[in-house]
Specification:
Layout (H helix, E strand, L loop, with lengths): L3 E4 L6 E6 L5 E5 L14 E7 L21 H11 L5 E6 L9 H10 L3 E6 L6 H10 L2 E5 L4 H12 L4 E7 L4 H8 L16 E6 L16 H11 L7 E4 L1 H10 L4 H6 L9 E4 L4 E3 L6 H4 L1 E2 L6 H7 L1 H12 L9
Parallel strand pairs: 4-5, 4-11, 5-6, 6-7, 7-8, 8-9, 9-10
Antiparallel strand pairs: 1-2, 2-3, 11-12, 12-13
Helix pairs in contact: 1-2, 2-3, 5-6, 6-7
């Protein structure tokens, strides 16, 4: 597999250059055109391969439904339809992707079609074999910040094989103090994590959805978001820090993005560059959507490309973002 993947759409208005080894991606308008707001086809897909989970996290945005995992043949169909224009897939859903019954085959399928897989895990029940498979095929892995023994065991396993490893940290009103400590260079894990080898901490904005829908009080306050946004400009930690699209939208509202940030981050990419496919093949702009209201079933009559181009939920989502790029269409 060649280390550099180049995507030049038929309209010749932009080009995407993706380094499979480093994860660096360059998206640029060409032939006098500006950088595109919407891509001809998605270049990153969040694929929910997991339909059930044992962790039962109190704020899981996926909710309580326990359903079958995505079938291997369905995942392969996604790769068949998108492998030429997708750079990365984020494996997720309701549960730990490394516990999928076809975990190895799914990663092998990604490799076959030149797509780099990444995933997030709790680390619970992570095996050495899964770590080896991850190291062989994945670009990066993230471990959720559960502060459990299995959290630190998993991080250590990945770091020992020199896997690019991140920690996913959900920013809530209650976790705010620890978030500020992390940015300020304080080791909140008390040497349980080798922060010298850690790649990054990625902050995710809590949303009152799924199992957290009755907990709106956990949303960070405006004052907290202001302090967090300002400190994010000059982090003192020795590893990198990042934010998901939902949180960077908040940052852009509370202090605006610096010139350097504008070069490296973007506001919501849902329906413009990225999308979500559920375990039962419902295709929607973002994983925070309602699959019955915002999803369209992928089948012989509705290809991924057809839905991307003309699916009503996608058109509606993009219309909201064109009017307010820093907003969230699902908060309207």
């Amino acid at each position: 597999m060649k280390p550099i993947k180049i995507i030049a759409p038929k309209n010749e208005e932009y080009i995407i250059i993706f380094n499979r080894k480093t994860g660096q991606e360059i998206l640029s308008g060409v032939n006098g055109n500006p950088d595109p707001f919407i891509l001809e086809s998605p270049n990153m897909i969040d694929v929910g391969i997991m339909g059930h989970c044992l962790n039962r996290c109190k704020i899981c945005y996926q909710g309580d439904n326990q359903e079958p995992n995505m079938k291997l043949e369905d995942f392969r169909e996604i790769m068949i339809q998108t492998g030429k224009h997708v750079n990365q897939v984020a494996l997720g859903g309701r549960g730990d992707p490394n516990l999928h019954e076809n975990f190895k085959e799914i990663l092998e399928c990604c490799h076959e079609y030149g797509v780099v897989p990444n995933y997030t895990t709790s680390g619970n029940n992570l095996t050495d074999e899964q770590v080896e498979i991850t190291k062989k095929y994945c670009g990066a892995v993230a471990v959720s910040n559960y502060d459990k023994d299995f959290t630190y065991v998993a991080i250590d396993k990945f770091l020992k094989v020199n896997m690019k490893t991140n920690i996913h940290f959900v920013l809530t009103r209650d976790s705010f103090v620890d978030a500020i400590k992390i940015i300020s260079g304080i080791d909140i894990w008390n040497n349980k994590v080798d922060i010298n080898k850690l790649n990054a901490v990625v902050f995710l904005l809590f949303k009152p959805q799924g199992r957290g829908k009755d907990k709106p009080y956990l949303m960070p306050t405006d004052e907290q978001l202001t302090e967090f946004s300002n400190l994010l400009l000059y982090p003192k930690c020795i590893f990198k820090v990042g934010c998901d699209s939902c949180l960077i939208n908040k940052v852009s509202k509370f202090r605006g993005l610096s010139d350097s940030e504008k070069h490296f981050v973007d506001t919501c990419e849902g329906g413009r560059m990225s999308c979500y496919i559920s375990p039962n093949m419902m295709f929607m702009p973002c994983s925070f959507g309602d699959r019955f209201k915002d999803g369209i079933k992928i089948n012989k009559d509705n290809s991924i490309q057809k839905i991307w181009e003309s699916g009503e939920p996608f058109l509606r989502f993009r219309n909201c973002l064109e009017k307010n790029p820093e907003g969230c269409p699902y908060e309207l």
